[in-house]
Design brief:
Naphthalene 1,2-dioxygenase Alpha Subunit, Chain A, domain 1, binds fe (ii) ion, alpha+beta, seven-stranded antiparallel sheet, binds FE2/S2 (inorganic) cluster, globular, about 25% helix, Rieske Iron-sulfur Protein, 2 domains, 17 strands
């Protein structure tokens, strides 16, 4: 069921989707203290393993130093050469490829070749910046500032569920991908918040919008969720459901037949069914570009046996391919929306089924205008239609 009884007026203006000034303000007001998923810990389980990624223009490497995972700025303190250039790898030492300076877990230099060239060298002044790094299950998150909430505070009431869905024994990483989105970050975020576009954009994968009878929306202070039962009308969906049930039975897992989709403001999504979980993160790059980072976890068998392990792995790869296909299907629509926001003279309109977009936009509006709570915001529509919160999975009543 939806909460809103009326259509809703958007909280943001067309210029909010392409203005360089608004983008700069968003970096400060929305992203400075939020968490960004950067990879999985299981990919760097041995000392010397590392991964690297650009996080909102900041090059970061996460390295295993004798079992301790540390996030550092991937820029040498000598003359700013990148320390590692691959997205993932292994090295005996963290050593700059230009003049060979070496660094330790604390970001301070270790060996400096021909060190007599640097008399009275201050090791604290020339050290790598370290970033907060925390884990939820297998997923690693970094933050660009020491200020702000812990990861658990940021994920709020979703934290415990996510931890189980991102890690063994129940789930195992199956695939990951980065996709360039030719659009402001809010465009893919908003496309992820409604099922209304499914018949036009995803006819071969999702197929049909479950509509109000098959949808339940829940809202909290820092996110929203959508729960549906997977009773899809198309033959292909029913066939897939039958296969999934059979497979889960073979793996020793009870099938609930639920689909859940969570949004943690501003830009993190988690989808969950009995056999998979998907992390989808929309990273802003410029006023008109963003990157989709996705990690797909497959269900691990509850019973022993190498055949079960193989089949669970193959199913994880197959459903991972489907998840990424769905993300790709949205790609062609983004530039059309982006150009529309430049030409538009006023905002559009949200249908009742798009109320999660309204809630997201109200969050952005409040952050950008320094309004602390929903009740203080100039958002009469949301106050009138404030949906019930969903404090925990068990209390959501998603049956
Ligand atoms: S730039 Fe890294 S050692 Fe010179
Ligand atoms: Fe879509």
């Amino acid at each position: 069921m939806y909460h809103s009884e009326t259509s809703l007026k958007p909280r943001l203006q067309p210029k909010d989707y392409h203005s360089a000034e608004v983008f700069a303000d968003e970096r400060r007001a929305i992203f400075a203290e939020s968490w960004h998923p950067i990879g999985v810990a299981s990919a760097i389980r041995n000392s010397g393993d590392y991964l690297s990624a650009d996080v909102m223009g900041v090059p970061i490497l996460v390295r295993n130093f004798d079992g301790e995972l540390i996030a550092l700025r991937n820029v040498c303190a000598h003359r700013q050469c990148s320390l590692v250039s691959k997205a993932a790898g292994k090295s005996e030492k963290l050593k700059c490829p230009y003049h060979g300076w070496e660094y330790g877990a604390d970001g301070r230099t270790r060996k400096i070749p021909a060190a007599t060239n640097f008399p009275q060298f201050d090791r604290d002044e020339y050290r790598l910046d370290r970033f907060p790094l925390e884990q939820c299950g297998d997923m690693l998150f970094v933050k660009l500032s020491a200020e702000g909430p812990t990861l658990q505070e940021w994920l709020g009431e979703y934290y415990d569920s996510f931890r189980g869905w991102f890690s063994e024994p129940d789930f195992r990483i199956a695939a990951s991908r980065r996709i360039s989105y030719p659009a402001n970050w809010k465009i893919p975020v908003e496309a992820s918040l409604e099922s209304y576009h499914i018949p036009e954009v995803h006819p071969m994968t999702f197929g049909e919008d479950p509509g109000e009878p098959g949808s339940d929306h829940f809202f909290t202070d820092h996110g929203s969720s959508f729960h549906a039962t997977l009773a899809a009308p198309r033959f292909i969906d029913r066939a897939l459901r039958v296969w999934e049930r059979l497979l889960l039975g073979f793996l020793g897992i009870e099938s609930q037949g639920h689909y859940r989709h969570y949004h943690v403001y501003p830009n993190l999504f988690v989808s969950y069914t009995d056999s998979l979980s998907l992390v989808h993160f929309v990273m802003p790059v410029s006023p008109t570009e963003s990157v989709g980072c996705a990690w797909h976890f497959g269900r691990a068998p509850a019973k022993r046996g190498w055949i079960r392990k193989k089949i669970a792995g193959a199913w994880g790869k197959f459903t991972g391919g489907l998840s990424f296909q769905v993300l790709n299907e949205d790609l062609h629509i983004y530039p059309k929306i982006q150009s529309g926001t430049v030409a538009a003279t006023k905002p559009g309109l949200f249908g009742r089924c798009e109320e999660r977009l309204y809630s997201f936009q109200d969050f952005v509006y409040r952050k950008m205008n320094n309004v602390d709570s929903v009740t203080e915001s100039a958002a009469p529509e949301l106050q009138d239609q404030q949906p019930a919160s969903c404090p925990s999975d068990s209390e959501c009543g998603d049956d």
